[in-house]
Amino acid sequence: MPTINWGIIGCGDVTEIKSGPAFNKVPDSKLVAVMRRDAAKAANYAQRHKVPKWYSDADLLINDPEVNAIYIATPPDSHEAYALAAINAGKPVYVEKPMALKATAAKNMAAAATGKNIKLAVAHYRREQPIFKKIKQLINEEVIGDVHLARIELYKPPLSQQELDTTHHSWRVNPAIAGGGLFHDLAPHQLDLMYYFFGPAEKVTGIATNQAGNYAADDVVAGNILFKNGVAFSGTWCFNAAATTDNCEIIGSSGSIYFSVFGGNTITVIAKGIRQIFSFDTLEHVQQPMIEKVVQYFLGAVPNPCRGEEGAEVMRMMEGFVAR
Q1: Which stretches of the chain drop beneath a pLDDT of 50?
Q2: Is 316 part of any domain?
Q3: Which is nearest to 278 in space by CA: 120, 68, 129?
Q4: Which has the closest alpha carbon to 128: 292, 261, 297?
Q5: What local confidence, expressed as pLDDT, does residue 147 receive?
């Protein structure tokens, strides 16, 4: 069986533990090259992770004949350009979330891949984690009856000035680089799960504002979605709260499912007067289940675990929430 030989564009923080090591741990997959514009950091990453090649020029990595798949892990402002370059080079792409700066750019990426018959998958990796697959199973099996409502609350304390002074945090609250603020960084995971559970949205509305003025991006967002299957969703995000809250509740005709997206390994189900708790192990590399599925998809063994069109739909939901 052929091997997917990966090249990473943007070997930054997300690739250190969440994704990078997993490319060498799943079957039929190997990480052979990495790229970062800072040559010293690219070389250091390659040395620490035992990657054979490193580059400071993305075009050289994309056109390396040994590399036959590209993982784009840069900030969102460069996702579209790198994805189109890889697609034009005939190489399948796995791109980080949010898929792009704007929904139009995400749609352009998906259309380019379709037009050239090149595979494109989006790193909405929670879809493949056991805890969220179990939630989808509970919904599909109607354990809580017909689903009527879903609700998310995500509140976090404000970033400190010290955090804002570091590159790790500063680009995430720069709309020109990230598309927005921490909402754009974190909400794609949550909204993609809602899409994964309930399907396409029929109507999206929302409000967004910058209350604290600590940076240029919005720090409070609230929105509603009516899904085409009739499920109504509401979400609130505040990044100036006194403490962290990470709650999701799915409410059905005969019970509810409770879980957190970022901070927990349990699902609580209360249905027909019975309380059940499902527990899951912590994953060493949170993207590994999705990377394994993407490798299988690139090899033609399974369907696409997250299509470009789905990533664009999540971008459309986000834009509906923050639209002025």
Answers
A1: none
A2: no
A3: 129
A4: 292
A5: 98
User: How are beta strands 245-252 and 266-271 bridged, if at all?
Assistant: unpaired
Looking at residue 1, its pLDDT comes to 57
Q: Are residues 88 and 136 in the same domain?
A: no
Nearest Cα residue to 153 out of 263, 265, 269, 310: 263
pLDDT for position 169: 86
Domain range holding 63?
4-125+292-296
Instruction: Give, in degrees to the nearest 5, the angle at Cα 116 between 30 and 304.
Output: 50
Give buried/exposed letters for 182-191 (b at 16+ CB in 10 A, else e).
bbbbbbbbbb
Burial zone of 310 (CB within 10 Å; 0-12 exposed, 13-18 middle, 19+ buried): buried
Determine, yes or no, domain membership for 287: no
Read off the CATH number of the domain in which 271 is found: 3.30.360.10
Q: What was the pLDDT predicted at 182?
A: 97
CATH number at 41 reads 3.40.50.720
Rounded to the nearest 10 degrees, what angle do helices 308-322 and 103-115 cross at? 170
CA atoms within 13 A on the CB side of 100: 23
Chain centre distance of CA 96: 6
Beta strand pairing call for 255-259 and 245-252: antiparallel
Please name the helix (run of DSSP H) or strand (run of DSSP E) that holds residue 294, with its range, or none. helix 288-298
